[in-house]
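Quick note —
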Amino acid sequence: MKVRAWLGGLAVALVAAGAGVYFFRGEIATRLVERTAQTAMQTSLVEELPDGLHAAFCGTGSPLPDRTRAGPCLAIIAGPHTFVFDAGDGASETLSLMGIQQQNIEALYLTHLHSDHIDGLDTVALQHWASGSARQPLNVVGPTGTARVVGGLNEAYAIDQGYRLTHHGPEVMPPTGAGMRAQEFAVPLNDGEEIELRNADGVRIVAFRVDHAPTDAVGYRVEYAGRSIVISGDTSRSTSLVDSARGADLLVHEAISPRLDAIMHQAAMNSGRENIGAIFHDILDYHTSPEDAGRVAQEAGVDALVLTHFLPQTPIPGLTHTFVQAAKSTYDGPVFAARDGDVISLPRAGGMHRSHHLRF
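Predicted structure written out below.
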């Protein structure tokens, strides 16, 4: 209360000192919008990046609430092509804030069908349709069951789509571009087995099984211009992931901190919230510790490791350092803790660069 009162007093003092500015603050803000709106509308991250392969982090969170992170989402930009892997809650908003035009998404690949990896699909599909007058639905590719998820979401949004078509008309909202269409594949049964899902325009995308039982889950490897990115999806330490990640430029790996998880488990139990405590206990066996993520990266011989899908959440600045240091104890290469808006670039000409691209 004392802090709140102090802040209130400070605000009053600032207003008194600059009453004129305060009175016209709405007009000043509007003029700023006039100056920046055109630039914002024309922004395209794809056009800003050099030719090569780029990992754009549109969601680095988990099912646990974290105001600083959207749900799991990774955009891969390969030359002029844009692909998205998973779409958790808030993914579409982060894509927009990064300057990634959602009408240009050629396919959205799902690692598995857990709620936190699919609960932003509807918004991405809407923006894919509306922002560029798409004439084809968003192509959603994933394991068996994807068609059921897509069908359910299409039905859930059918009324909304009808309203938007009636209001804006077919030129703005072409009816053939609404919603999603599903492309399913069976998860490989054996370690070392891969399914090639795309091999065109210099872009190759393959899927491989990972261990996230009882879900059917996959990771992906994307190759372009002699560069490669491997995406773990959700998994415990996985032999098949090591096999598919060998020699990759970048491994994007989920991570759970057993130390932080134990703190959350104990706090829940001490508060009489046994159900939440049980969940914190159970999630350990189908996710990967930072130490094991480092071991995977070391064994696969990848050039760099980036951690994402942080469990538990990391609301305190510097908390991701716990994850990074643990991974560095088992891996000799560079380790990064991803933030929403980060981009790790692998230019065709070589090298690796990290930048940040949240616009507002």
